[in-house]
Amino acid sequence: xxxxxxxxxxxxxxxxxxxxxxxxxxxxxxxxxxxxxxxxxxxxxxxxxxxxxxxxxxxxxxxxxxxxxxxxxxxxxxxxxxxxxxxxxxxxxxxxxxxxxxxxxxxxxxxxxxxxxxxxxxxxxxxxxxxxxxxxxxxxxxxxxxxxxxxxxxxxxxxxxxxxxxxxxxxxxxxxxxxxxxxxxxxxxxxxxxxxxxxxxxxxxxxxxxxxxxxxxxxxxxxxxxxxxxxxxx
Length: 234
Description:
By secondary structure, this protein is mostly helical. It has helices spanning 6-33, 45-69, 74-77, 85-109, 115-128, 131-158, 164-178, 185-205, 209-233. The longest helix has 28 residues, at 6-33. The model has no long low-confidence stretch (mean pLDDT 94).
């Protein structure tokens, strides 16, 4: 059996997303039972961070099951292959150019693309004593699970379909960007363009590990800059 086609990938992807929501609902119920039936508050950063990890990890379990049903190895299905240093260098150059370009746009237009939101999240996590959990979520969990979903599972199923490679890169980047509603329009546009780069590098290298590393590098840089701003420059 080959990979799931367009509709199969879409169906499993939607089911995976719903599974993530149910995982958060289940966690919320457990949280309430262990906190005197107090209603969970999304502004509680410890609760919010753990919920964020669950909503990312639970879908991955579903996608693994979907891949195994097709009797393909996870390495093949999710394109967990090596990549050349040339492709890594090209990906890093594109990512750096994108960051510089959007930073310049923010300065010229006087618009904040999302750093204020990140600073608020960082401060809340620090006050709640869950900074290590936040770093784990942003720098490790999000890049791994999101790339497995978009540039791994969906790309694998959609690229050979009627959508084609270019359409797959654009649609997966758009879907990924739409999920980041915590940012303003400029921030979402930045994520969309970054998704185009990740999709292109996934197709060019034949590896989902490459966009995963680029994603990790971006999140590590962004979180480190926020930490520097909060801890030393404020």
